[in-house]
Amino acid sequence: MTPAEDCWIGVDESGKGDYFGPLVIAAVCVDTHVAQLLRGSGVRDSKTLSDRTIAGLAPDITGLCRTSVVAIGPAKYNEIYGKLKNLNKLLGWGHARAIENVLEAGCPATMALSDQFGDERFIKDALMKKGRSIRLEQRHRAEEDVAVAAASIVARWEFVRRLERLSGEAGITLPNGASALVEAAAKRLVRDRGSDALSAFAKVHFKTTAKILAG
């Protein structure tokens, strides 16, 4: 690693707007040399890439960089959300945990960068000893930074893999997003397994739940 001032952490999440599947937060530690390599390999915001491209890039990122992935499955997500009643607080905890993990792994960064999703105190208040020693910056379109873009790719890769495993457990394909296909899958899940099954596969505070159960 290069000196700390040339090293920073990018943090991003996947699954926040998806009814089915986990919420995944990833942190990636980069230095200026690695950042150049990542840009050269095509690393950019995961929303501009196909899942196939993401699956090819993510192992390269985890091979080059110290990374941390915090994955909150639907059951745990629903439990935590039920207590906090605030998605930004949950995101702040996940971001802080991912930052802390990558620092514990030896990342010498003095700064962490994330997308702007709420008051930065949601992250700062959740940081522990190591995390409180670094500067936290939240920025609109933070994915333009290669470290945050790399984190978005790692988070999306983990989300897709976990959603596939959940589909296997459910016995049906659980689509991503929050669309008519998602509603159809949720209706089938309720028909086959009962309404209580939703909490094991979906984020039940979404309006989709009330819509499905009312129907």
Brief account:
The protein has 215 residues and is α/β, with parallel strands linked by helices. 50% of the residues lie in helices and 16% in strands.
Task: Provide an overview of this structure.
With 215 residues, the chain is α/β, with parallel strands linked by helices. It folds into two domains: 4-166, Ribonuclease H-like superfamily/Ribonuclease H (Nucleotidyltransferase, domain 5, 2-Layer Sandwich); 172-214, no CATH class. The chain is built from nine helices and five strands, in the order ββααβααβαβαααα. It has helices spanning 32-40, 51-64, 74-84, 87-104, 121-124, 146-170, 180-193, 198-201, 207-214; strands at residues 7-14, 23-31, 66-72, 111-115, 135-139. It has a five-stranded mixed sheet, sandwiched between helices. α2 packs across α6 (146-170) and α7 crosses α9 (207-214). It is globular. The N and C termini lie far apart (56 Å). The model has no long low-confidence stretch (mean pLDDT 90).
N- to C-terminal distance: 56 Å
Q: Note the beta-strand portion.
A: 15-25%
Named CATH architecture of the largest domain: 2-Layer Sandwich
What is the overall number of helices? 9
Structural class: alpha/beta
Largest sheet: 5 strands, mixed
* Spatial strand arrangement across the major sheet: 3-2-1-4-5
Question: CATH fold name of the largest domain, please?
Answer: Nucleotidyltransferase, domain 5
Overall number of domains: 2
In CATH, what is the class of the largest domain? Alpha Beta
Mean pLDDT: 90
Fourth-tier CATH superfamily name of the largest domain: Ribonuclease H-like superfamily/Ribonuclease H
User: Looking at the structure, what is the overall shape?
Assistant: globular
Number of DSSP-assigned strands: 5
